[in-house]
Amino acid sequence: MMARLPFLLTIVHGGTVLPRELTARLVLTPADVFFDSDPWTRELFSFGEAVQGRLEAEIARAIIDIDKDPNLKPPQVVDGVVRLRTRYDKPVWREDSPPTAEDVNRLLDRYHRNYHEILERVASRGGVHLGIDCHSMAPIGAPLDPDPGQLRPIFCLGNMGDSQGEGESISCPVDKMKAFADVLCEVFADVKLLEGQSLVSFNAPFSGGYILKRRRADRSGRGTPWIQFTVNRSLILADEPDDPAQAVEPPDSDREIIGKLRLRLMLALKKFADKCFKY
User: Which helix (H) or strand (E) holds 147?
Assistant: First the structure.
């Protein structure tokens, strides 16, 4: 039996559940929820007992973003921890029924704080040598993303550093970032890139969110390292709409394509683990 890979996976943006008590106050369509999430991450990273641990959120990011600082609250911040606008700049709440301070605190207690408390416990398990914060991304940056209208790489690795993976307070050593990138380039060498597109980038467009900021190792190197790993959904969605904000329904998923990509991601993680860790 193969030893479990020494990774803890966290999947915070794969959920689509809306709190039942709030649905009458929301103006979100199924397409809004889908395109504001990280589609298919729960399926792509469903590795079962092949890894040391896996934690996922079921709540939709269009309501509460577990990877945002809990101090980024509405109404001051429209795309903070409790969302007023989707990434495609569409309203989340009915105009006459915005979230109250009580709503915000209830959502934080039920979903945000609870998730991070569980993550702390799981991350302390023996055998966890690296945390991987798993995401998917649209091929083109959305209006409220850090890179609106920009073509994105196939994979983005984030460690709170610069385009070389370096920085004063990074969440993962540069050598491990480069080793992971090398493995991705090996396993996905056949991917056809668009003009100006890279296969792997460091910290662009995403360098990491609250999960990495809260858990990055100190400068002495103590602590479990973390990487944010983001997969371009063009690998599994051939008919990406030109303007997801105008979509009426979520696109259909191809389970066979998702399954094949999952196997390749699993192979990449296995090669990465064999290259960098004793387990």
Answer: none
> Six-digit token pair at 258?
């998702």
264: amino acid identity, one letter: R
Query: Is-contact 259 235, C-beta < 8 A?
Result: no
Q: What is the pTM of this model?
A: 0.95
- In the three-class reduction of DSSP (H, G, I as helix; E, B as strand; rest coil), residue 227 is classed as strand
pLDDT per residue over 62-92, tens digit each?
999 999 999 999 999 999 999 999 999 999 9
Measured distance CA(93)–CA(80) in Å, rounded: 14
CA angle 50/52/58 to nearest 5° reads 90
Tens-digit pLDDT profile for residues 28-59? 999 999 999 999 999 999 998 999 999 999 99
Query: Could you tell me which of 114, 115, 123, 121 has the C-alpha nearest to residue 8?
Result: 123
Following CA atoms 170, 13, 54, 172 in sequence, which dihedral angle do they give, to the nearest 10 degrees? -10
